[in-house]
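Protein modeling request. Please complete all fields; requests missing the sequence field cannot be processed.
Requester role: graduate student
Desired output: 3D structure, token encoding
Chains: 1
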Amino acid sequence: MGTTGWNTLIIINEEDILCLAKANKNLRSVAKK
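Delivered output (33 residues):
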């Protein structure tokens, strides 16, 4: 696996983290209601 492989993995992880963060915010807003 070259450096490009690691770069794509990191990019995918960043996108997953953003999705999880958005889901967390949605869950918190629902819990407040």
